[in-house]
Give the backbone structure.
Amino acid sequence: MKKWSLKKLYLGFDDAKFKEDLKKLDQLILEINSQAIDFKNYEKKTQKLERYLRNEMALNDLIDKLYHFASLTTSVESTNQEANKMVNLLQTKLTQLTEIGTIFTKWMKDYPELEADMKKSDLLKEHAFYLKEIQEKSSHLLSTDLEVMVSKLRQTGSSSWGRLQSLLTSTLDVEYDGKTITLSEVRNLATDKNPEVRRKAYLAELKSYEKIQDSIAFALNSIKGEVNTLSKARGYDSPLDQALNNSRMEKKTLEAMQSAVVKYYDIFRQYLQRKAKLLGHDKGLPFYDLFAPIGENDTTFTIEEANAYILKNFKTFSPKLHDLAKRAFDEEWVDYTPRKGKRGGAFCANIQAIKESRIMTNFTGSFSDMITLSHELGHAYHGDAIFGESNLNSSYTMPVAETASTFCETIVNNAAIKDVKTEEEKIYLLESSIQDYTQVVVDIMSRFIFEKSVFEGREKTVFDAEELKNLMIDAQKQTYGEGLDENTLHPYMWICKPHYYSGGLSYYNFPYTYGLLFAKGLYAKYLENKEEFVDVYDKLLAATGKMKVEEVAKLANIDVTKKAFWKSSLELLKKDIELFLELTE
């Protein structure tokens, strides 16, 4: 029960079905590449375009199964060489489609009378957003030969550097209290009740990074240097400009959100200073006590208990959410507990080809772990909403990706606070929520500042590990301010967070803030009209793969380009912090 089952995909890499699908992939790649001759002119253009779209959908189904099987295996077995080789093989096979993809995109750039053709073809009409987005992004393409070269070089560049970070952190030996444990295990001790355990775990964690800091500094420099070079070559102002484009987000939306966040730093610092005082510190909160429990709650959860609690509270929102979570538990979608070779953190993979998801957590029984599980189940619910769409309309961007997950967190958190029997329990649960707010608002802002500094600095230099540590400390000082003890910050947050190590996904930070604050705004609307909201919410989630984030928000009558919306959501967080300050006076 503690591990997920991937049998719905394949029984193994030697499974006849897996081998058959690999052959089908090769055949489909040949079929798609054969269309290059189609894109030399616009004769019978509608038929050519429909054929290409159908092939793309078939390709997505195959890759969805093959790649997820390999990558999910590596996420819990980082030393599984067969899985690692298969990930690399599949990525290499996909580079064979770079040339035809570029040719197609350039053909689409000048496609005549697209609107008229969409009116005559149901298939084209269904994929109107997808096709128009391709036309918009065509201006950022390099020449066909260069796109092919870049695709191939990435396999030995950013993709390899990213796998190195994953391998080094997932297999890192941490010497703690006379024994050797994993990085995930030592980081989980940050929530321990014993202050000495937290402090020693923090020191052991920092010490362990010394063994891999130089290697991972090379990885980070290489990835960010590659992204800088390519984003400039593609005509973007910066990697941030490219990230916003990929997020389907306008710059004014990000600026409105972040300017609102800065205005609310002070209330978060008040919370951190109060927590420091409660824990006996007089110079701000040490980083190792960020996740220290406050109040009294001896409740720990077995896997079964966590599942039951989540199901009970999901049912208060809708039977559909409850039933989706029950499927996840009953049909072994979840890989729960930490072990050697398993990567840290948590994620959810939506697999449209089988209309199921798989969830990885590092569950140890804490309240926070239960909330993490509810968060990932929110991603699965989002996946379920999107599974009714064509797979070409299912690729939603990072900002809206965190909406359903944060919404589900809110459901469970609010229910837990209502269920408490004592004031000490209320303080505990309230503070647990505020911990999460602080991470998603304040810590995420520090990560954004750090990544921006690295991108800008890489234009002129290469950073060594010490310089990266200094950049991280500076970013934490800017955001946490006097809330944290400046002598006990975390200079290595750039090592343990995998979000920095992708050549194709930069600034994997601000979407979390968007997700939290957007979800809070949605939850407020849910409370205003529960019956009507559920249907609006499901339609909103289903539309995330075929709309810009601003258009998605409008489905719920929200304008995310205005600072007022973000302030209204931050006010909800502020009320929780003020209640905490009142209860701990």
